[in-house]
Design a protein that fits this description.
This protein has five helices and two strands, in the order H-H-H-E-E-H-H. With 121 residues, the protein is mainly α. The protein folds into two domains: 77 residues, Arc Repressor Mutant, subunit A (Orthogonal Bundle); 42 residues. A hairpin with a 5-residue loop joins strand 1 and strand 2. The protein is elongated.
Length: 121
């Protein structure tokens, strides 16, 4: 996902970053488990002070939209009830494995669909 700052906007830059992350989560461009750019990297990319991006991330973390995993960085948090959160986390882990293996995403989805059909029978 690409972040942009509208310098002509009356909306403060930290709010613009925050809203873009929220919209990315809502639209599915930032699924649960997606890694966000580091504060320093995003600040450099957008021409902002690191504290500006850090404030956006803190507010997103407080709202439980993202989670910070220490030195590992910030990630989109799972949301919803407990079972939905577990499914989101499992899906994120599976997607990462598919990418690491270089597997065909369409085939991976077909395999999941077949596994789910088998589980329902």
């Amino acid at each position: 996902m690409t972040f942009r700052i509208d310098e002509e906007s009356d909306v403060p830059p930290f709010e613009q970053v925050k809203h873009q992350v929220i919209e990315g989560v809502r639209s599915g461009h930032l699924p649960a488990g997606a890694k966000l750019p580091t504060v320093r990297h995003l600040a450099d990319e957008l021409g902002l002070a690191a504290n500006t991006v850090a404030r956006a991330y803190r507010e997103l973390e407080h709202a439980e939209i993202i989670e910070t995993r220490g030195r590992n960085g910030s990630y989109v948090a799972a949301s919803g009830d407990a079972s939905t959160r577990q499914v989101q986390l499992a899906a994120a882990a599976f997607a990462e494995l598919v990418r690491e293996l270089g597997a065909d995403p369409a085939l991976a989805l077909d395999l999941v669909a077949a596994a789910l059909r088998g589980a329902q029978e």
